[in-house]
Every structure is written in C-alpha cells, then in structure tokens.
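Worked example (supplementary).
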Amino acid sequence: DAGVIQSPRHEVTEMGQEVTLRCKPISGHNSLFWYRQTMMRGLELLIYFNNNVPIDDSGMPEDRFSAKMPNASFSTLKIQPSEPRDSAVYFCASIPQGGHGYTFGSGTRLTVV
Amino acid sequence: GESVGLHLPTLSVQEGDNSIINCAYSNSASDYFIWYKQESGKGPQFIIDIRSNMDKRQGQRVTVLLNKTVKHLSLQIAATQPGDSAVYFCAENSFGDYKLSFGAGTTVTVRA
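After joint prediction of all chains, the assembly is encoded as:
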C-alpha cells in the first residue's frame, strides 16, 4: 500500500499565480479530506468528499480556493490567485467506508512570495 | 464554540522515562478520540484510538486514557525513546461525522 500520495512536496510561487495541489487517496478509501496546517491555526479542515462528492466545504477560506474530485483516485485543491497568507502545509487524508482514523499524505509545503 | 485543546504546548522527557500528554475536549457529543504523531516534514500518523464506551486502551508502549466526566484524554508513552520526539495531536469526532477536530499539538522532545 503506497499510502496517500500528494504532489508536489514543495511549491514556491509568486503572488497572483495559480497553484494546484494534487492528491491520490488510498485505493478503496471513499472519503477524502483536505487540511491546511499553519503555526498560528494548527490543522484546519478545508473540505471533504465522500464518494467523490463534496460534503462540507465550510472550511474553504475564500472563493480563491476550489477543490475537485473527478474520480475515486484523484483530487485537486486549487488556489487562484494565490496570496502570501496562503503559505502553509496542505495535507490530504483518506478513510475507508465506516472508518474514522485518517491516513494522511506527506503534505505539500506551499510558499507564496 | 466546541473545540479540542491541549494543556501543555511542550514536553521535555529524559530517554527511558514515561511521557504523559494531556488533552481536553469540550464537545460532550464526541464519542471517538484519536492520538496522532507528527514528525518533522511528515504528515500526522495514527497512534491509537479509543471510543467513548472505554476508559483505557493499550497499544505497543502507548496507553490512552479517557475520562468522560471531566472531558479529558491522555496519552502515555512508556520508556520514551529518541524516535518519540514529535508533535502529538489529539483529535475527536462524533458518531456519523467524518470530520476530525484536532487540538493544537504538544511538542515532545526526548533528551538523551
């Protein structure tokens, strides 16, 4: 089992640019979560999907953030346009049906300059 | 609002000693609790979980205690090793809710 796979591991971009983060959940897991981690706010849930359908996006900070899950094996989190305050580590996690303990990916460290 | 929080932000432990990490939660509807370990540059890693119908659960070198009366959760690590140095998070959710709420995290540093 390769675990939850995120790409890229690091991303440095200029303010105003579009950023796309990618996630491949564990095969067979049907819920996927995007979290953001910062020193100030800790781990914050941005959005989660169940069976590829967005269930709760109340944590998405602004309209600049959007997430998609076109199929069971792939999800993207897009920020357009990016701002320096978006700098954080973004984690993707997945769980199987009926499960509770997330399996997290290694994260994408985003730096917006 | 409802939240999960940690009492101590940092903990320094001598190698070989036992560690105790504490966590308070405020949502009385929470019925499932998890401890995660996060090493530098990595994602949080599941350590151990406990349901609200239990007050203690043991794993390999770790024990989680749950006191529902005072809404308190603790993680005990026996014979702490250098590899235990990490940030530890408690998290909770309620039955039927997939969302986990995470505490702020406690940084554990093991002294050789």
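Two points are worth noting when inspecting this output. Chain B has a mean pLDDT of 90. Chain B touches chain A at residues 32, 34, 41-46, 49, 89, 93, 98-100, 102-105 (CB under 8 Å).
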